[in-house]
Specification:
This protein has 285 residues and is mostly helical. The chain has 12 helices and no strands.
Length: 285
């Protein structure tokens, strides 16, 4: 395995030295359910005739649970990263790499605590079994060789997809609750470093793979991409019911076939797909 870009990791660690603890940095007392937590165009039902008939309260509550879904995805992805990377902390690692891993673990643990705090502070009901990780993506995150291309490809996708969504939410500050905007901002700042490091490792791993082995990653990548995108942009049926809509399976099916939402998702994914194409991969949803 090629050595990581130590100069890059040294710079990223320096940028992480001033740590922004989300539990202390965010104004938790201001968080409530009086406003939207996502811009309406980001909601999975937006654009449907049925959505227009919903009350303002149900639309707001739907925005709360769709952002809770985003946070559940974050908790899952960060849990997998924390478990895998913590096992790589070894005295044989270059000191620069060891230091960066510690910074990254601290920040990812902070994000998970931030999400848990937001869910608790909101007072929203969230049964323990209401959200499940997608099977293939979860298996890859837990079992793929932590120094290999498949693992770092999973990490790049798992970090870049939420990052582009968070950047969209930040671009609409008047449309979302200020505390939610704070959460997205802090996440974007830290993830910029994490994505840079993950991409560097992915590029190093890909350089060692001959063309046919790189091509073999494409079907795995596309299954992984589809599962992460679906779980991120399409909440579980139970979440629609928690938002006040009966027959959650029916509403989720409506969302899955919502052309307006599919167009919105395609817009958010476009930068990620271009990045993957730049590695000679062929992403397809």
């Amino acid at each position: 395995m090629r050595s990581p870009d130590l100069a890059l990791l040294r710079q990223l660690s320096a940028n992480s030295e001033i740590y922004r603890d989300p539990l202390a940095h965010i104004d938790w007392h201001a968080l409530d359910c009086s406003g939207f937590w996502l811009p309406e165009p980001a909601l999975s039902l937006y654009g449907l005739a049925e959505y227009a008939t919903l009350s303002a309260d149900v639309k707001r509550r739907l925005s709360h649970y769709e952002f809770v879904n985003v946070m559940c995805c974050g908790l899952w992805l960060e849990r997998a990263f924390l478990q895998r990377v913590s096992r790589r902390l070894d005295a044989q690692l270059p000191r620069v790499e060891y230091e960066f891993f510690l910074h990254e673990l601290r920040e990812e643990a902070g994000h998970s605590l931030m999400f848990l705090k937001a869910i608790r502070a909101s007072g929203l009901a969230l049964p323990e079994d209401a959200w499940q990780a997608p099977r293939l993506a979860n298996w890859l995150a837990r079992h793929a060789l932590a120094a290999g291309a498949a693992f770092w490809l999973a990490m790049v996708i798992g970090e870049d997809v939420p990052d582009k969504f968070n950047r969209y939410v930040r671009s609409e500050p008047a449309a979302v609750h200020p505390t939610i905007a704070q959460i997205c901002t802090l996440h974007v700042i830290d993830e910029a470093r994490h994505i840079a490091a993950a991409r560097s490792r992915l590029e190093a791993a890909l350089r060692q793979r001959p063309g046919w082995r790189r091509a073999a990653l494409t079907p795995v990548m596309n299954l992984l991409l589809r599962q992460i995108v679906e779980v991120f942009y399409l909440p579980p049926a139970r979440f629609y019911e928690l938002a006040g809509l009966t027959h959650g399976r029916w509403w989720r099916a409506m969302a899955a076939n919502n052309a307006t939402h599919r167009h919105f998702v395609a817009q958010q994914l476009a930068p990620t797909l271009r990045m993957l194409e730049g590695y000679g991969l062929k992403p397809k949803l």
